[in-house]
Amino acid sequence: QKEEWAKLKDEPTITADEEQVELAANIGTPDDVDGVLDNGGEGIGLYRTEFLYMGKNQLPSEEEQYKAYKTVLEKMGDKPVVVRTLDIGGDKELSYLDLPDELNPFLGFRAIRFCLENEHIFRTQLRALLRASVHGNLKIMFPMIATLDEFRQAKAILTDEKQKLKDEGTDFADGIEVGIMVEIPSTAVTAKQFAKEVDFFSIGTNDLIQYTMAADRMNEQVSYLYQPYHPAILSLVSNVIDAAHSENKWVGMCGEMAGDTIAIPALLGLGLDEFSMSATSILPARTQIRGLSKEKMASFKEKLLTMSTTEEVVEFIKEKTE
Ligand code: PEP
Ligand code: MG
Hints:
Elements: H1 2-7, E1 13-14, E2 20-27, H2 33-38, E3 44-48, H3 50-53, H4 62-76, E4 80-84, H5 111-117, H6 119-132, E5 137-142, H7 148-168, E6 177-182, H8 185-189, H9 191-195, E7 200-203, H10 205-213, H11 231-246, E8 250-253, H12 263-270, E9 274-277, H13 282-290, H14 294-299, H15 301-304, H16 310-321
This protein binds phosphoenolpyruvate and magnesium ion.
The site of magnesium ion has 4 residues, from helix 10.
GO molecular function: phosphoenolpyruvate-protein phosphotransferase activity
Enzyme class: transferase
Cofactor: Mg(2+)
């Protein structure tokens, strides 16, 4: 089987009915890029930049970040690299920042909420990203967006940093796409409004599931509620994909669900454009997708969205892919 997979390393990801999708990888550090290329990744769908900020006793400098982003972009060449801005808080703490103790950290002061309040930290990261953008195919993504206002504010800060660089005579790439993670139900529900203003969506199912089901993703006792194939999740995912496409925007998924063999046929049928997963899942996923007809999966979409329970959904997908 491994040999079969290896043959597909440099092949595009094409379904049995010749529809193309993109298989990208999630990474945490520049060292992960070699593994992505070795496993045939067509891009980076999520670069979690938190690791630059963690395990040390001060903020990473602009230069330090620039180097990391440049390394990733150069190694990936013209392949797309989606860098997510700092997603700190929740379960990820920073000892040197003295974040407040919270009763509900996952519902609290994290990610874009933190960045919009600590603009200097956010601006440093955006500058580093913009400067690095000349070295590859960069796309910038904001995490935990719950309202259009947050997106507009974050984008305005980015635009401001671009202007400053321009005034200084520092180069950055033209037309860098700016997108958001869809991982909060409010955003998934109002995806249509967002789709007019963002360049792309990436659905973060790890958080989207926990917020939709109100089940802490770290809590064993409620893990029975953590159901990726629950009809509510499929309905939100479908809504986000339709919203994006109605505005001619692309939509990816970078939560664990994107690499899940049961979910993949359903996601293909719902119209997902990009699947971002751990590098080692890419070749198995490419093999699976080559055996699936997108048109056939899409023809089951309506029926799929009428299922009542997770069990029914799983049963239905299995039946349709046998
Ligand atoms: C997600 O929430 O699905 C996601 C990809 O982000 P993280 O796992 O880093 O929260
Ligand atoms: Mg998340």
